[in-house]
Records
---
Amino acid sequence: MDEPLLHRLAVALGVGLIVGVERGWRSRLEAGGQRPAGVRTFSLVGLLGGVLASLGDNDTSAVLAAGILAVGGFGIVTYVLTARETRDLGMTTELALIVTFGLGALSVLGAPFEATAAAIVMALVLGLKSEFHEAILGLERHELLATLQLLLIAVVLVPLLPSRPMGPWDAVNPRTVGMLVLLIAGFSYIGYFAVRAFGSRLGLMLTALFGGLSSSTAVTVAYARRSLSADSHRALFGAGIALAAAMMVPRLSIEIAVVNPALLQGLWPTFVTLALVPLAGVAWVTYRNAHVDMPHDVQLSNPLQLRTAVVFGLLLSVLFIAGHLIQQSLGDAGMYAMAAVAGLVDVDAISLSLAQAASKDFEASTAERAIVIAMLVNTASKAVLAATLGGMPMLRSATAVLAVALVAGATVAFLTLG
């Protein structure tokens, strides 16, 4: 009795059972004899793949090829008969039979866990037919392109980038730059689709929270402008801006934790302050306006643009090189000035470049102070932007809250970082 072989054959049978249950459930309402393939058929096909894989001593390719041809021929006959009678041209079940045969063979050839995992994933994909179709119907062209571009960055571009120091002073690691671009692009993508899927149902505050993951600047601009035509809800728009600005803290915390988690030990007091002060203002305004129910979603322009990702990667590379040069020529003061200027535009790029360079080019304390400077400048820029676009109402709400956060954050940073 070959117990290991019996175990693998049992896995082959289980693989077919997993997929067959899903296929059988989908065709459960059809009369007996009219269902092309269900639980029993898929279970037997998975077992067949396992049995044929166990027959050959050294080379099983010919036996498996014959088995695939047999299963494929059965699938073709079934497809022709079913399509002729029902006019259903879908061939998912027939293709699933061939894949199930292959997974059954794979389980006997030495990868039972992988075969089982693949069967579960395949059954899940087959079971989500309606959800996939609904998602595709509601997908805009630019959203589809953004999804494909994100996959292009993750699966093609990043693995192809060399993982070694390059450029002037060996300051740039292309693989590291690619990973950081993917991280930022992923945040933008998730935030966009969270607003896209739930925004109109979550209300103003939760929309601002998800929007802050993608772009707190976009939330600031949209809410400040729309507050001008919403006399009775201006305080809520201001609180939404403050909430989106507070989302900078968890976003940066995750980004820095990926690159250089040791920096968070010195940064956390300032980070907590810059998050809690706006959140306190949001809680107060929300409490004061608890009777107001105004669902509202902010329009984010695009979940991801490949051109934007490339520009962000180039900006990171320039900051890596500039940081090394400035540190060597101007010292810490030059780094602080660069962080202040960069914080006006984008706090993520400068923070990531500083966190990455801190491990080799300068002390961690310098990076911590520079990151805080960039965050404070960025917070101040959003406060000014809100007041400029929203006028006096935003000056009394969003700008006031962000100004308090700015002062509190600067005070905590001075006491903790020196």
---
Amino acid sequence: MNFKIDKSDILYKGVVFNLRVDEITYTNSGNKGLRQVAEHPGGAVVFPVTDDKKIVLVKQYRYAVDEWLLEGAAGKLEPGEDPAHCAERELKEETGYTASKIEKLGEVFSSPGFCDEKLYLYVATGLTKGEHAREEGEEGMEVFEYTMSELDELIRNDVITDAKTIAGFNLLKIKFSGLFE
């Protein structure tokens, strides 16, 4: 690192994230700078794959962008929570499915230019259909199943624009291609 932190303040403590502002000094030049960071506890995203090789996504309203988005089932980590447990919880809550096997796909930072949120991505197989357990604010959420080629087309045509879903889908293709043979 070519800087030192002179001062760090939490300007806002929220339910979903905190806003931190750091005053820094670059060690080589002595120039000052400000860094604004959205502190987030992280989350888990799960990509369920059915026995007939379809990937389950949810369509839900996202307040921040005022749009309905197609995405992997996802949720925020509780303090100290194992991301795999969070993925299991969100799978049941948002899709109604439970899985006999949940495996890690990888990890991604959602937007590291200003946010420290790390997302843990999982694939779920051996699915059993059940009833969802959605939270308040998840009304109207719908569940859809797509083949790999359908998802490629939805991404190509900007129907799926959620970054975590695009990253997770690509990791699924790279690391678990055997599921789709």
---
Amino acid sequence: MKKTLLSLALYFIIIGIVCSQESEKKIAKIDSLLNNYIETGVIPHANIILVQNNNPILEKSYGYKDITSNEGLNLDHIFRLSSLSKLITSIAVMQLVDQGKINLNDPVENYIAGFKNTEILDSINPETLDYISHPANNKLTIHHLLSNTSGIAYGAAMNPNIGILYNKNGIDMGYDTSNISLEEKMLKLAKIPILHEAGEAWTYGFNYDVLGYIVEKASGIKYDEYLQKELFEPLGMNNTAFYLNSDLKDNLTSIHLYDTDSKTFYSTTETPQLPYRMPFNYPIEGSKRYLSGGVGINSSILDFSKILEMLYNNGTYKEKQILSSEAVQRISSGQIGELPFMIPNASWGYGNIVEKDNTIYWSEGGGFNYFKVNKEKEYILILFTQTMFSPYSTMKIFFQLDGLLQ
């Protein structure tokens, strides 16, 4: 009996050593790759976190917060999350579902009356801006918003016809530094036709901005106040906000552009021409009124990792129950059935992309921030950068790093 117990103990020690050695090899490969990319100018910077079996095994910064000023990057520096904001908004909505304040089948018109008479766009005259539409048969629901199947689109970058109507009505796609509130924009949006019957197609759009306003209506407080009270404070996310106050603004990572002549990156606050609005001074300047649940949240990689740790642990963070396990299951599993999706063999959950029979969920924000949760292999990988117009794809870099973990 003693020999059997001794053999088992030795077996587990050996397994532990082997696993540790394998992890060290993977970390060394990741570290070498990122160092090489910084040294060769492929990327100006990167923050990375790798968590294996709930243990952070790599938390490291590479390169510069601002390459022009030569200021180094650290893990507390803040990045524009862009579409990673959608995951946070999904969590806020599902918290209210857990509390019985929202039902996934609730019609959106219960919260925003303008959606009661939703119409579907048939055609538009780009010269006169006159359009033809017809009444929608299906009621828009909370589920349709979360699953991006409502028919509400983003602007010209996604659909030229809708873009024309958005421009006419003063609805910006993306970051909005104008003097407009979330309520004001959503009331405008409710008057614009949608692209298709709710539930009949997957369309990337303003769904999560609408959801942010619904959180306001259901909770009775502003969306930023709700997130601070119900999510950021319980998780200890002290470097996360829509807009950065004087204490946080110096932590904002500069956006880096690529100069094709010198083949180097440089930082700038001057916004280039884009098919959507993305002022480079966001989130420091402007009216600071609009709270975009789809793209507007800013966070450090350390803070954002707490969101993913909570989801990985079925809604619990350091013995605090943030979400029910049922809510986490909804967020991290496919929610669009057999509808065509932009990625083959994948689906959309609530706020992220889902793969491999719901064992993997991941997303990207703005083409520069990424995360992946692999439940099967028990790891979380996060990569934050802040680059645009680079000839080097940060998404390819992210999946190259992820490939080293397989």
---
Amino acid sequence: MLDQRDLAGSVVVGVDGSDHALAAVEWAAARAHQQHRPLRLLSSQDAVPGPAFGIPWDATLDDLLRQAAEAILQQGIARARSGRPDLDVSGQVTWEPPAQALLDAAEVAELVVVGRRGRGGWSGLLLGSVSVALAGHTMCPVVVVPTPPDEGAAPTTSGPVVVGVDDSHHCDAAIDFAFAEAAATGADLVAVHAWTLDPVRDAAVMADPGALRAIGVQNDALLERMTAAGSAAHPAVVVRHREVRDRPALALGATQGARMVVVGSRGRGGFVGLILGSTSHQLLNLATCPVAVVRGR
């Protein structure tokens, strides 16, 4: 059972000893250090190999699994503390399945961070059916960190924050998060609205330049309206609007050079089902920067 009191208000990161997890630890440590928050690492040992493989379960096997999990934690803690000796960092071993452990942690954490891929229990955490449980139901934002070409290095910390925008109220929380991230890091904000037309159903519209211009005007108005409150709250953040005639995952995944892409866990129009469907796989595989999934209020 997790000690949620120790996790309250912290940045929580899942670790499994893989390079992907170490990249997530590096990003999470930088985030926690910047925001003066504690960093808490979770190592899951939910798999019980004994009975499944005909191996008698005994205290020795239990100790070996715990020692392995503790070794993973210490590796992650050492990585987090490197260059940050004053960082408040510690870890917990959990016997819960990884998704459940992170869901429990997300009830009290400020932020949950995972690597794009992993080993053992964390493998494919955000690239399979578990994504529905985690991204769709966590109480706090989830950040998925890709592993850079040089394994284990930290992702880029330059470039703009990019946020996917539609006209749903679920998008408000994602926009708020994106503005706060841009303000905290001194980055520009790029608000992207993706849209497409059906070549059969919308053939008449596609052939009418006036109709296409009208759609453009509507999209500009949507972006202005959805980012107005954030601009008022963070006047120092430079905001750029971008409408893209493409599928949302491709529109956001092609944002080379961004420091982060932010999306809501649900949406309408172009961004409906972005994280809770097959499109999530495309986005998480295409993005070269961390992807933040923010649950709507």
